[in-house]
Structures are given as C-alpha cells and as structure tokens.
Amino acid sequence: MTDVIDGDAVAADVREGLADAIGTLDDAGVTPTLATVLMSDDPASETYVSMKQQDCAEVGIEARDVELDPEAPAEELFETVADLNADPAVNGILVQMPVPDHVEDRDVIRAIDPAKDVDGFHPENVGRLVAGDPVFKPCTPHGVLKLLDAAGVETEGADVTIVGRSNIVGKPLANLLLQKADDGNATVTVCHSRTEDVSEKTRRADVVIAAAGVPELVDGSMLTDGTVVIDVGVNRVERDGESTLVGDVDFESAKSKARAITPVPGGVGPMTRAMLLYNTVKATSRQAEVPVDL
C-alpha cells in the first residue's frame, strides 16, 4: 500500500519542535521577529504573506508586515530592506517574490543582510551551502529533506532524480543530497528542459523529486515500482470549468507505482512555510548569541 506523506502533519511536528527553542530565546529576553515585505497586489502573493504571518503568530514569532506600492520606485524597496537590515529587532527578512518588473529580483536578494536571509538565497548563503557549510538551507529543499526523513527514506547510497534545476529548489536540493551528511550521500541526477529521455532517468531512481513547474509532467509510466515520489510543483489548471491545484506529478498514476508520495496540496507546501519559521529561529539564535536546540 502506498504511503501518502502528510506534509501538514510533518510541518506541525516542526512547529511544535520550535517551541523549546523559542522558549529559550524568550527566557533570554529575545523575541524572534520576521519582517515580510510585499510589493505586489497579486492575490496569491498576498495570501502567501498572510499565511506566513499566521504561522509566525502560532509559534510565538513576531511578524512585521511591510507593504509597498507596486508602482513605487525600486529605491523605495531597497531603502526598506536597508532599514530592516539595520534594525536589531528584526531577525529575518523575506521579500515576497515576484517583485514588479521594474525591480531586479537578484538585486533585492543581494541587498538582504546574509545574517537575516531566512530564504537562504543570498550569494553568501548559497556559496556556503555549495561548500558544505550551510547556515540557512533554502526552505523548500530543507522541507523536502524533512519529508524524506519522516517517511523513513534512506538517502545514503540512493539514486535520486530531480526534475527541474531552479535556483530555488533543484540546484540547492541537489547540493544538499550530495553532501556528506545525515540527509545526504545520495547519487543525484538533475533533469531539465534539455535532458534527453527524462523517463529513462526517473525509472532508474529510488527517489524522484518533481520541481519543474509543469503540471503533471511525471506520471506512473515514468516510475519503477517502489519509487518514492516528492512533488514540489503547485500549478493552477482549469478542469471542467473550474480552477484546481495540481502538482508536477500525475498523482493517481504515480501513486499506483510509488512506495511513498506527497500530495498537492498538503505535501511540500506546508513544509516550506515551516522551514521558514525554523530559519527565523536559527537566525535569531545566531544574532542574539543564545544557543538553542534545533
């Protein structure tokens, strides 16, 4: 029988596990604080930020909401980030992407103090991750590792195929899985739009991670019996005149082959949000020089 990995339950465990660390910080007079910066009127972005703020309230992290006019000059966003960098009461900074077209997202990422970069995307943090000495693991890749661990999936010596090479998921996840660590030591293949015969790569894998942003790209015909499937994709499609969410995996056909699989929604998404809280607590601990157990 296929194990459907419950991302909501694993995320709840992560949040519960943060309680002691936040209590230690509170005892030291420190309140973890995450600043979210929204420069968009996109309803999805507004929803994501609202959910992150609710998550913060649930675990005892203070959420500071900063909203900017999407038509404002880029300088206003950079000045806001600079002010948050300089504010000792702010421990983590998240600028919700995408930003408006007149703002270069790479420049925004570089503007955030690496010590407060709880997304883990600043070049300094990326470099440390690649070097095998990460400070902040990007939230989605870290969440994937937690899901694999919760499902009892051993990555040591496993063949893992990642479909998608984005800077947000595919590349950092490949690096983490390759590293000599408890959740690493895998043999990793990364597929992308120029890969010939992706199916050949996925069929020989023990673990397939779909993160290409293409609805239902991976189906059961591309898998071998007993594969573990992690679906990172979240795609909105129209079906029978209604809008619905699907992943990068055709769930039903993949489920017939998989030993374990994540659903969409309720799989990787909750973990991304949970690991943002984790990184915020870690950032607070490092800045306040108050050791916590994470």
UniProtKB/TrEMBL annotation:
Q: Give the reaction(s) catalysed.
A: (6R)-5,10-methylene-5,6,7,8-tetrahydrofolate + NADP(+) = (6R)-5,10-methenyltetrahydrofolate + NADPH; (6R)-5,10-methenyltetrahydrofolate + H2O = (6R)-10-formyltetrahydrofolate + H(+)
| Molecular-function GO term, any one | methylenetetrahydrofolate dehydrogenase (NADP+) activity
Swiss-Prot/TrEMBL GO biological process terms: L-histidine biosynthetic process; methionine biosynthetic process; purine nucleotide biosynthetic process; tetrahydrofolate interconversion
Which InterPro entries does the record associate with it? Aminoacid_DH-like_N_sf (IPR046346), NAD(P)-bd_dom_sf (IPR036291), THF_DH/CycHdrlase (IPR000672), THF_DH/CycHdrlase_cat_dom (IPR020630), THF_DH/CycHdrlase_NAD-bd_dom (IPR020631)
Q: Name one Pfam family in it.
A: THF_DHG_CYH_C
| GO-annotated cellular components | cytosol
> In what residue span(s) does the Tetrahydrofolate dehydrogenase/cyclohydrolase NAD(P)-binding domain sit?
138-287
Functional pathway: One-carbon metabolism; tetrahydrofolate interconversion
Give the similarity note.
Answer: Belongs to the tetrahydrofolate dehydrogenase/cyclohydrolase family.
Question: Which HAMAP family does this entry report, sorted A to Z?
Answer: THF_DHG_CYH
Q: What does this protein do?
A: Catalyzes the oxidation of 5,10-methylenetetrahydrofolate to 5,10-methenyltetrahydrofolate and then the hydrolysis of 5,10-methenyltetrahydrofolate to 10-formyltetrahydrofolate.
How is the subunit organization of this protein annotated in UniProt? Answer: Homodimer.
This protein's name: Bifunctional protein FolD
The primary gene name is folD
